[in-house]
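Subject: mismatched residue count in predicted assembly?

I count 855 residues in my input, but I want to confirm that the predicted structure covers every chain. Input:
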Amino acid sequence: MFFYLIRRIAYGIPIALAVGFVCFMLVQIAPGDPINAIVPPDAPGDVVEQVRRDYGLDKPLPVQFGLWLLKVVQGDLGRSLASGRPVWSDLSSAIGNTLMLATCASLLGFILGCLLGGLAGTFRGSWIDRAAVTLAVGGVSVPHYWLGMVMVVIFSVQLNWLPAMGAGPGGSADWAWDWEHIKHLVLPTVTLCVIPMGIVTRTVRGIVAEIMNQEFVTALRGKGLTRGGVFLHVVKNAAPTALAVMGLQLGYLMGGSILVETVFSWPGTGLLLNNAIFQRDLPVLQGTILVLAMFFVILNLLVDLMQTALDPRIKRG
Amino acid sequence: MRLKKFLMAACLVALPVLGASVADAQGTLRIGMTAADIPLTNGQPDQGFEGNRFTGIPLFDSLTMWDLSAADKPSVVIPGLATEWAVDANDKTRWVFRLRRGVKFHDGSDFNADAVVWNVRKVLDREAPHYDPRQVGVTATRMPTLRRAEKIDDYTVALFTAEPDSLLPINLTNLFMASPTQWERLRAANPTAEATWNAFAREPSGTGPFRMTRFVPRERAEYARNDAYWTDKAKLDRIVILPIPEANARTAALLSNQVDWIEAPAPDAIPQLRQRGMVITSNAQPHVWPWQPCFAENSPLRDVRVRRAINLGIDREGLKTLLGGMMSVPVGTVPRGHPWFGNPSFNIRTDKAEARRLLAEAGYTPQRPLTLKVQISASGSGQMQPLPMNEFLQQDLKGIGVNVEFDVVEWNTLFANWRQGCTHAAARGAHATNVSFAAMDPFFAMVRFWDSKMAPPVSNNWGFFNDPRFDAMIAEARNAFEPAARDAALARLHAAGVDEALFIWIAHDVSPRAMSPRVRGYVQPQSWFVDLRLPYIQ
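Triage response: the counts match. Full output below for your records.
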């Protein structure tokens, strides 16, 4: 197990390098000029060139990439071109906010998905199954940002029940788990949970239906186990797969909540990335994508380890 | 008669009460900005003029400032931290500024000549220990001729320019005075000048009407009134500024009472905002949304008759209707009545018959129509609604026999191309470019487009306009050191620009804002900026 762990961590290094390189090149070939993040568009040419030299943006691309890599290895993600602040200081607070939102959304999606999927799998072919499948397909299909806007219009603008934006009345810096803060989390969480809910519902439905047809379930019933008792065995058998799906969904939500965070002005990595893209803030883009990619790799590893712990039949060499 | 006396007595009793309610008015104003982050709070804001509006002027002052007190006249330059200034009679590159006495920074230190020299060096002296490249980009560009500062005595400084430049006092509205004492105090705890400026941005100290009390990067900045301000103090107790870049999110935040004021509400939401009792404000802004012509050999816009024809062929009132009234109709780069408007003989208006006549005179007929290619963007800061506006123009000009083709490029690309000129491959053969610009300052409004020395890559004379007559007028304006003479020279320059139709002037933005009816005392000047000392919450 120990060597397996070391090997999996070592796999992360080439992935990090590849992600860093692809991200660096993508930003370079995109139209526009990163210098626009620093100087106004109407700046005279000599000032533009001076600032370009000051920031090292006049160096050849391989040199720029090499210098960035050298700093990253030393734990320095550089400074934002737009704000001048260290990338890590903005990124660390953004990751915390996104992790909170993604975890809440994943948990809600997982709970609802397991519930709906379990019911649909158990009562396959019934109206409960059809209703659950409709919800699941709707959840996967509906555009996030559209749902977010509709919920803002209903619950914030019309009913005035929940806030439309932000991460608390005083910002995320003084977050507390009280209603004044939690109510800022409700709409983005519900918006973001619909996709994992849909995916988990469909996955759990399939597994439960499959398990319900297996011989050991018939044997359990034959032994006179109650419906609840049988259900517990089914859940135990379905858990590793459902857990793997949920882990992946958490990873997707960490990097894939750009639109939802923008709609709700939620100060997470999605909003950070969105703004960095518009400002062509190269260090922020590279740092954020690199950290999110690493997060995804680590999350996969954790899911694998948890699956092994839950189901001893799964062996890791 | 008794009733009249009673009413008069009631009014006399009520007046002091009403007066007191305004004088004692307090409150917290929450503003939703379009910026995606809090503009830099180190004294030289980024994020364009929205930065100056919300983290420049409220926290810092400059030697010269804009008069933002009135909505019904153009905003002009007034004394700020300098009470008077004059160019040296013997050396037109040397200006002497007398400084205001008794002004203190938020940290309690004195504002004086040393502070001015220190603030000039922060952006112009690469050897200075506090030189900050980050601030150069947003400062040096707005005062292109300023070279250095020299202390004469504690309250007098000399500023030197690279060449005689009467526009310097206007340019200096962009150089905000940060506290050297605060910077030195923070320097002791920080390893580098860059780190010190970052620390300074978290604890800024200027002389402005508000001081910053809280800063959460990317989320909010909070200000409290500066009770020791050197002139009229602010009415508000506190201001909270919040970056909300998405227009629908800003609108929802206002409608759900999370903010009291939003910049640039979504145009589609304006009727709903009005219906919910919100106040929509707007005013003419020194902003131009043009097509900037290319004057290269093969460009049809080299011909003044064509440029005039297109200016006459546009139905600007129709465009205004398309935008729900949220634009003003231009008659030049500056509006009529502005000190720089002058007396142009060419009257910019809609006259399609005259437009057709001019086109025919230039050789363009229905059988041989004029085809123009314009490079535009799909979005961008200050660009208003570029796609529907340009599509409207395309349809409109078809009516006078002009076929318009668009080359739609990404906003940053359009910007980058602006510095490369219309003969560069990046222009892809466009005859005009559609980059909007601020026109508060003569350099940015006219000089950089019409001075032959400003051709790319130096500045934004994208079309390579080259006319010695205009070069001479620009030199004359730069060398006119009496404000009245300078304005007269600029007026002649502007009038000549209009007569030559050096732009296709299409729209001025009116900077729409939406605010809660609880916001009172607000004045929207004819400027990109606002005076946040004036509003209060009722």
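The CA atoms of residues 240 and 306 of chain A lie 8 Å apart. Marking this ticket as 'not a bug'.
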